[in-house]
Amino acid sequence: MSERWFRVCPRSELKSGQAKSITILGRPYAVFDVGGELFGLDSACKHMRANLANGKIVGHTVECFMHKWRYDIKSGQCLTNEGFDTTSRPVKIVEDVVWIAVEWPENEF
Fold this sequence. Notes:
The structure is a single chain. With 109 residues, the protein is mainly beta. The protein has strands spanning 2-10, 19-24, 27-34, 37-42, 56-58, 61-63, 70-72, 88-89, 91-94, 97-104. The chain has a single domain (2-102), classed as Rieske Iron-sulfur Protein (3-layer Sandwich). The protein contains no helices and 10 strands. The strands form 3 sheets. A 4-stranded antiparallel sheet has the order 2-3-4-8, with no helix packed on it.
């Protein structure tokens, strides 16, 4: 597996305390802005797969809107139930555009 970068949004569209979601190969990912710092996550809640980008952001924590499971935005650690962590993802800004990296299968041909 290698990483591949995907465009999320212009930087100006992501404000502090907000998240932007992107779906890649049917899986949701999100970039969160916490006080100007950007963090990426696999954004499917480990409980019932709701998109964490739609959750309530308080500091470095996001709370799933469906059943209130909480995750650390920086690390992906589930704060509600041990062992149900999500995966953090690298984020970068290139020419005022936000990008997120996801794992991508190597070409076998």
